[in-house]
Amino acid sequence: MPHWKITVAYDGTPYNGWQIQPGLPTIQGTLAQALHQITGETVLPQGSGRTDTGVHALGQVASFSLESPIPGPNLQRALNNFLPGSIRILSIEEAPSSFHARHSARRKTYEYRIAPQVICLPTLAPFVWNCAWPLDLAAMQQAAAHVVGQFDFTSFAASDPDLRLRTVEDDGEDNDVPAAGKSAVRSIFASTWRRSEDGLLIYSVTGSGFLHHMVRNLVGTFVDVGRGRTPASAIPAIVAARSRSAAGPTAPPQGLFLIEVDYGPSQDSRYSQIQE
């Protein structure tokens, strides 16, 4: 039974996130339908993390096994033929049976894109936060540096009481606030802002794992710093508070991209496997 690792890019705009949901369009559900059309098998691809509604990916990874002996290049071509244009299979390779897109991951990198004080073209608007305020990039960079390291990130985790508390089986940018006894400690290895050639402000963050809305809550807080509402020096105190009310607002989903999932051996003892 071949076991496959696929790399997927998608526009998350028309989907209710990665995770399959009855009666709603999702990335996972759409992939499962395409695989069933091609092979007749009912399989559920396991993703490296559950991107939220409206969030995009340039390097999502999924794994699944098939009974069908279809060669990898043929399977990739067939999937791209059956899938809508908003989902593309960038690569496919046979993997050891022990490989799991989530459990085997070492690091994940997300990017968040802001278009500050510009008129967004219709082709750009679904993929950026069209932010109306002037932002101090240097101050935002100072703030971002304060979250590098290993911390309890409860202050940056979703706190909506209507969200169910997920179990240890969940991970990624898409976890909710950890249930009692579950750790909110995550390791952030890189956290930086830059300005692109076309004027976008881009936040890049690499970590061992991310709580639900964690990246978007970090961005919302850093934007408060850029607006002058919060000093960059306040970030350590916000982290230490371990309270969602201490941090800034949640940035909208459309600016967020899952860029890369790393499965290679760690070269640094600080790099641990994805934390549950």
Structure characterization notes:
This protein is α+β, with helices and mostly antiparallel strands and 276 residues long. The chain has two domains: 92 residues, 2-Layer Sandwich (Alpha-Beta Plaits); 156 residues, Pseudouridine synthase I, catalytic domain, C-terminal subdomain (Alpha-Beta Plaits, 2-Layer Sandwich). Helices cover 19% and strands 25% of the residues. The protein contains five helices and ten strands, in the order βαββαβββαβββααβ. Strands 1, 2, 3, 4, 5, 6, 7, 8, 9 and 10 form a ten-stranded mixed beta sheet that branches. Strand 2 and strand 3 form a beta hairpin. Helix 1 crosses helix 2. The longest helix has 13 residues. It is globular and about 60 Å long. The C terminus is likely disordered.
